[in-house]
Specification:
The chain is an alpha+beta fold and 218 residues long. 35% of the residues lie in helices and 21% in strands.
Length: 218
């Protein structure tokens, strides 16, 4: 059976074109799908919701004097719905993680993401006002990017690579990445224009411009 690559049109994985002369790739990575399932697709909250529904169903059944067989059937039905919902959300998280590549170069940050219609965001480092690590230690975490005004990108275009609940002031986010402390140090050096900053080991691809740009793959 022939193997097809959905992103075979990319000259470099995660990039719409080869890097121009003088621009160097410092890091590439992708979201960790389990963390993405928890933070972006709220799997834990879904489980908690179904847990409350199940508790309410059991309490109601006991008050009404239902038989154990009826109670068991109701519980199994709720548990099956919960399992199906969690499976769908985890599958979406895995697909988004698989289709997302973050790239940091000496000049810009590139976010390629999407399922049926991949979107590529080019964010020049000159337009990054600040960057901060969110929800992570030395291992997994996210990096929030604040874009200088009046530049902005639509929240729906960014999602799930966007800071939650910032609809009026969308902020790009390198979400649920590995080695977040090391990546943040490399990003800080790149933002300072420190040419001696050491590249971080690429986690997904081999090493291989302008206001914020968004392109959609046909």
């Amino acid at each position: 059976m022939e193997d097809h690559d959905d992103f075979a049109f990319e000259p470099v994985p995660g990039l719409p074109e080869k890097l121009p002369q003088g621009e160097t790739m410092l890091w590439q990575g992708s979201p960790e799908w389990r963390d993405l399932a928890r933070s972006a697709f709220h799997v834990r909250k879904v489980v908690a919701y179904f847990g409350l529904v199940l508790a309410w169903q059991v309490a109601s059944a006991l008050r009404s004097g239902q038989s154990l067989s009826d109670l068991g059937a109701t519980s199994l039905w709720v548990a099956a719905l919960c399992a199906a919902a969690v499976a769908i959300l985890c599958l979406l998280a895995w697909l988004y993680a698989r289709g997302t590549i973050y790239t940091l170069t000496t000049r810009r940050i590139v976010i390629r993401s999407g399922l049926a219609l991949p979107v590529t965001l080019n964010l020049p480092l000159a337009l990054v006002e600040s960057a901060a690590v969110a929800g992570g230690g030395n291992r997994h975490g996210s990096i929030v990017l604040e874009v200088t005004k009046p530049n902005r990108v639509a929240w729906l275009v960014l999602w799930p690579n966007a800071r939650p609940w910032r609809f009026n002031d969308p902020q790009p986010m390198l979400r649920c990445i590995d080695n977040v402390a090391e990546v943040s140090r490399t990003l800080a050096g790149a933002l300072r224009g420190d040419l001696s900053v050491a590249p971080v080991r690429a986690t997904k691809a081999e090493n291989a411009t302008a206001p914020v740009g968004v392109s959609v793959a046909a």
